[in-house]
Amino acid sequence: MTVEYFTTLEPKNPSRWLITSDHASNHVPKWVNGGDLGLPAADMERHIAYDIGAAGVTHALATALGATAILSNFSRLVIDPNRGERDPTLLMRLSDGTIIPANHHADAAEKERRLDRLHRPYHAALADLAARRDDTVICSVHSFTPQMRGRPPRPWEIGVLYADDDRLARPLIAACEAMGWCVGDNAPYVGYFPDDAIDRHATAHNRPNVLIELRNDLIADAAGQALWASRLAPILDKVLADTGL
Questions:
Q1: Is 1 contained in some domain?
Q2: What pLDDT score was predicted for residue 97?
Q3: Domain of 22: which CATH number?
Q4: Which of these, 27, 35, 156, 187, has the minimum number of CB atoms within 10 Å of its CB?
């Protein structure tokens, strides 16, 4: 099912897994500055606008796990669904050295409009999916750029992010390292922002969870997305079974 603010995949699937992709799309709704944030098209294809490859991995991973998934349908530059409503990075005016013209003078009323039409409905839908059963496990799929401007290259193929709840993250890191992958332990960044999507829908409800970051050059095409989904699905299922959660 696709609506303005999200796409849901197989909402009736019986799996405990709920796969989320908060930054799946670089779409700008027409009612936001005429559908144009004032950036060149090339910038809207960069990691600043969305998580490259994450949508394809989410689709393939949900299929492999027999899971339900939810994907955002709007660019993180419009309003970031992985941030809490009071987070200062909720509506970015500058990202990786690029000024976002349509956001530069966005006022509180404009932020509230985007929250009402996009951010809040997405989170309401996510909350409903997570609450369908009392043993939901959330896996959030993201991607990261191989190198931020002016910073060293990032060596990791995959990052496993977590906050205080590392019940799934720790064994998943070990399993990924056993595959010979270069794994980031809460890298390329720490996986916690107060009231972010995982905090809100997993940690606050004591739901087992993990946030996976894949380097986006590895999943830039359909073949890479399918490959990494096929690699991760059996590991995720095994780790969940082995933990007894």
A1: no
A2: 85
A3: 3.40.630.40
A4: 35
Number of folded domains in the chain? 1
Please give the structure tokens belonging to residue 63. 């299929």
The pair of three-digit structure tokens given for residue 38, joined into one six-digit string? 């004032």
Per-residue confidence band for 2, with pLDDT thresholds at 50, 70 and 90? low
Task: For 120-183, give the DSSP string.
Answer: HHHHHHHHHHHTTSTT-EEEEEEEE-S--TTSPPP--SEEEE-SS--TTHHHHHHHHHHTT--E
Q: Which of 241, 7, 8 is nearest to 135 (CA)?
A: 241
CA distances from 171 to 43, 176, 177, 225, 226 (A): 37, 9, 10, 23, 23
Alpha-carbon distance 237 to 38, whole Å?
43
Whether residue 123 lies inside any domain: the answer is yes
Q: For residue 243, which amino acid is it?
A: T
Whether 52 has a pLDDT exceeding 90, the answer reads yes
Phi, psi (degrees; rounded to nearest 5) at 9: -110, 125
Write out pLDDT tens, residues 133-171.
999 999 999 999 998 777 789 999 999 999 989 999 999
Q: What is the pLDDT of residues 56-71, one digit of tens each?
A: 999 999 999 999 999 9
8 Å CB contact between 67 and 61 = yes
* Mean pLDDT for all residues in the chain: 95
In a domain, 37, yes or no: yes
Identify the H or E element spanning 9.
Answer: strand 6-9
Give me the domain span that covers residue 177.
6-243
The per-residue pLDDT for range 86-110, each reduced to its tens digit, is: 999 999 999 988 999 999 989 999 9
92 within a domain of the structure (yes/no) = yes
